Amino acid sequence: MLSHRAIWAALDALAERHQLSTSGLAKLAGLDATAFNPSKRVSKDGRERWPSTESIAKVLEATNETFDSFLSGSMPYSQAPARVSSPTVPLLGFAQAGSGGFFDAAGFPAGQGWDEVRFPGFSDGTAYALEVTGDSMQPLYRDGDVLIVSPTEQLRRGDRVVARTRDGEVMAKILYRRTEKQIELHSINPDHAPRIFKPEEIDWIARILWASQ
Q1: Is the pTM of this model over 0.70?
Q2: Do 198 and 95 belong to one domain?
Q3: Taking a C-beta distance cutoff of 8 angstroms, is the pair 210, 122 a contact?
């Protein structure tokens, strides 16, 4: 499974393969020269910062590399896995996620017969994909975007998450605060106000690991 360290190591390795500094790689992709600097990888309060999906897409296009080569390039050649087909994860629509019977109590897809998508790096058996429909999650997520989420990843303040209420409402939000008495979720779309729930009102919360945009 992808980790914060592995993603940044992959970017460092990508720059080295193309005989560039991380600043040079960023400029080649049309990004700010400091986008991949070590100071940008951890916030002042110690929270891990991840490179954006858009920035990684731009450096892959600029270097003519694939996502598979990007990931495997972070390892020494002798340790890199053999080239195999990317693993698949179950694919559901947000309407399915909100319907009864499609998930178990822990937030895992239940049953069989799901559509599937291939997505490298998420082969731990717990991640799955949700396809965005409509425009309620713009500007960050658009109709047709696929979110890779995991119900087993540790949740921290500031994480982007997908949550489902006991009433079957499914939403992509930012986890702002989680205490014994309430869960506060902020909207990605600034036109929507924050939502505050009692813990018992939430069925499950899954952390968004990646978005294929």
Answers
A1: no
A2: yes
A3: yes
